[in-house]
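Good morning,

Attaching, inline, the backbone tokens for the sequence recovery test we're adding to the shared suite. The designed sequence is right after.
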């Protein structure tokens, strides 16, 4: 258990052996540092570096000194076969480090990349190595990244890798939840789309089928839900796709009423939909947001922001003469209208009597002249340069920028705790 002391009996003999090893390691390290400091480039130091690296592969100075020695060796041989042998020895060392207990050593993977680019005839073997290491831990993102590096060197068709990735994601419970595999899959899909000119939306629909199987298997599988978020962001707007996502997630909620990811996916899709939501539908969504706050109180403010977005996008706040008025709605932000082309011609924005905490960038609202933000919770006056009229009474502003204030034709800041 965490935060509980281990009641392990200390063996003095074992401790003494460890002290001796540490002393010996430090002596060897200091010798190497002295050699490097003196400018010596001596191949005889490589065995010592081997021992040090096998124990502490994240010590960058060891690898850097090793590269200096290897680079000098390479400059003194003319035969390609001799150079190949030098690189092969380096690859053998990195494989030993990775295979023993340091499978996630950044510097070891970096050194392997540095070597492998010079021995093309070994590139195919690298796929077998990564497959072996991923069989030990299929979430090792270092190994996935290296595999992608090798695939680019080989210029392989991404279909082969998509099949490999699919087999891992659909095998056993561990495979279903694998952030690294999903990320790798997204990279291969991008390559497939770019190289083969295949309709990306069609590829994404097939990926949605993969996600559906994963989340129906385990609705708490965060990696699949995160991957689905990527699919949503990449997919060209499609009401049919949105509807399928919403219906699928509603089915999951019927089975597991506490699945926050299904609820969030519904909310994200409804915000992307062009359909006007009914009052009944909005009420249902607001109930789901309250449920999210109950299940996940740490993210309460985010969920309230999502509620604000839905309110603004689907309530009838746009008045005649390009005036947008949304008072007394308990809004916490108004980013949804600022980033929506539908409201770019708004001239006056009235959002008084809410709980808005900040003023977003208003540059997309090119025709905006007047903004009223009285009785909110705004702490900083920002993003209102050059407006004709700003009313920001009874907020929480303590400091102002004189240049910004002077750029506004008329401003009312009554009721703020200005210092």
């Amino acid at each position: 258990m965490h935060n509980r002391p281990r009641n392990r009996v200390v063996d003095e003999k074992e401790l003494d052996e460890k002290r001796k090893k540490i002393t010996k390691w430090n002596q060897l390290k200091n010798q190497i540092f002295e050699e490097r400091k003196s400018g010596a480039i001596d191949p005889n130091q490589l065995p010592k570096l081997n021992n040090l690296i096998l124990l502490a592969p994240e010590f960058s100075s060891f690898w850097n000194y090793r590269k200096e020695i290897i680079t000098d060796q390479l400059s003194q041989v003319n035969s390609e076969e001799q150079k190949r042998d030098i690189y092969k020895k380096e690859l053998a060392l990195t494989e030993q480090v990775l295979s023993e207990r340091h499978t996630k050593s950044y510097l070891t993977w970096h050194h392997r990349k540095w070597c492998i680019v010079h021995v093309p005839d070994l590139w195919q073997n690298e796929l077998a190595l990564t497959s072996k290491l991923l069989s030990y831990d299929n979430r090792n993102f270092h190994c996935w990244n290296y595999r992608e590096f090798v695939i680019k060197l080989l210029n392989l068709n991404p279909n082969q890798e998509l099949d490999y990735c699919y087999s891992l994601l659909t095998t056993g419970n561990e495979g279903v939840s694998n952030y690294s595999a999903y990320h790798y899959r997204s990279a291969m899909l991008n390559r497939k789309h770019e190289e083969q000119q295949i309709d990306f939306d069609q590829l994404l629909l097939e990926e949605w089928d993969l996600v559906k199987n994963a989340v129906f298997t385990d609705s708490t599988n965060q990696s699949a839900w995160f991957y689905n978020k990527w699919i949503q962001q990449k997919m060209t707007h499609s009401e049919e796709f949105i509807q399928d996502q919403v219906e699928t997630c509603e089915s999951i909620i019927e089975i597991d009423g506490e699945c926050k990811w299904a609820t969030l996916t519904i909310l994200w899709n409804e915000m992307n939909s062009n359909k006007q939501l009914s009052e009944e539908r909005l009420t249902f969504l607001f109930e789901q947001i309250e449920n999210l706050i109950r299940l996940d109180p740490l993210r309460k403010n985010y969920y309230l922001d999502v509620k604000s977005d839905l309110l603004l996008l689907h309530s009838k706040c746009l008045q005649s003469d390009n005036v947008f008025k949304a008072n007394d709605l308990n809004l916490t932000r108004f980013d949804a209208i600022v980033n929506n082309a539908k409201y770019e011609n708004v001239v006056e924005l009235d959002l008084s009597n809410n709980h808005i905490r900040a003023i977003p960038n208003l540059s997309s609202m090119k025709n905006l002249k007047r903004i009223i933000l009285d009785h909110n919770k705004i702490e900083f006056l920002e993003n209102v340069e050059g407006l004709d009229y700003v009313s920001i009474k009874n907020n929480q502003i303590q400091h102002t920028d004189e240049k910004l204030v002077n750029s506004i034709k008329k401003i009312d800041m009554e009721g703020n705790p200005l210092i």
